[in-house]
Amino acid sequence: MITVHHLENSRSQRVLWLLEELELPYRVIRHARDPRTLRAPAELLAVHPLGKAPVITDGGTVVAETGAIVAYLTDLAGARLVPGPGTEERRRYVYWSHYAEGSAMPPLLLKLVFVRLAPGSPWPLRPLVRRIADTVLRGFVDPDLRRHAAFWETELAGRPYFCGADFTAADILMSFPLEAFAARGTGAGPRVADWLARIHARPAYQRALQQGGPYAYA
Q1: What is the largest CA-CA distance in the chain?
Q2: Which terminal residue of the chain, N or C, has fewer Cβ atoms less than 10 Å from its own Cβ?
Q3: Rounded CA separation 190/203 (Å)
Q4: How far is CA 151 from the centre of its chain?
C-alpha cells in the first residue's frame, strides 16, 4: 500500500490526483502547516530528512520530490499517462516535467516571499521593506511571471494539453504552478483558464480533492 504524506495547499495534491488517475491503491496521512510560518510540521522529518511534502512510502521505499514520485508511480502503473518513447509527445513530456519545478515554480515562490515580506517584518521597518519588496516585484518577479504566462498561452494555442492531443502526467505536474499563478491575483490567460477548467472537471481530480481536503487553488 502506497502512503502519501500530504501537506495542505501544497504540491502534494498532484500526487493524490495522479494516484486517482492511475487507479493505484493508497492511503493519505494529512499534515497541517504551521499557522504562523506556513511551513511543514516537524513530524515530516521522521519520514524524510528534509521534512517536506510531498513524500510517499511504498513498503520500505521512500520517494520524495514531486517529479521523482510521478516517475515512480507511472513506472509502477506500466507507463500510463506517459507518451511512447521516440515521439514528439515524449520529448515534450520530458521538457514539461522538468519545467514545472525547474522554471515555473521559482518566480512563483519569489512572489509569495516578497508579498509576505513586509507584513512579517517589525512594524517600524515595514514601509522600507514594502518599498524594497515592491521594487523587486515590479522590476523582476512580475515581468518574469508575465513572460511565463505568455509562453503557456503560446504553447496551448495549438494543442489541448501540454504534450499534445492527450492528457499526460506532465499536465498533472504543470497544474500546481498554473493554479498558483491564477490564484495569486496575477490572472490567467484564456487558454490557461480553459486548460484549468478542463483538468478541474476530471473525475480523478475531484476524487483527489475529497482525499486531500481543502485546497485553496482549485
Answers
A1: 59
A2: N
A3: 22
A4: 18
What is the rounded distance in angstroms from the CA atom of residue 13 to the CA atom of residue 28?
11
Q: Vertex 208, ends 148 and 183: CA angle to 5°?
A: 35
Torsion over CA: 155, 159, 161, 162 (sign): negative
Residue 88 corresponds to which cell in the numbers above?
514528439
Look at residue 10 and give its three-state secondary structure. coil
pLDDT at 185: 63
Phi-psi region of 24 (alpha: psi -120 to 50; beta: other; left: phi over 0): beta
In 3D space, the residue among 140, 148, 217 whose CA is nearest the CA of residue 189 turns out to be: 148
Alpha-helix runs per DSSP H in the chain: 13-22, 66-76, 88-99, 105-117, 126-136, 142-155, 169-183, 190-200, 203-212
Residue whose C-alpha is closest to residue 209's, from 27, 67, 13, 53? 13
Name which of 158, 150, 156, 146 is nearest 196 in CA terms.
156
Cα–Cα distance list, 5 to 19, 90, 119, 164 (Å) = 13, 29, 30, 31
Predicted local confidence at residue 38, as pLDDT: 75
pLDDT in tens, 131-171: 999 999 999 999 999 999 999 999 999 899 999 999 999 99
d(CA 67, CA 70): 5
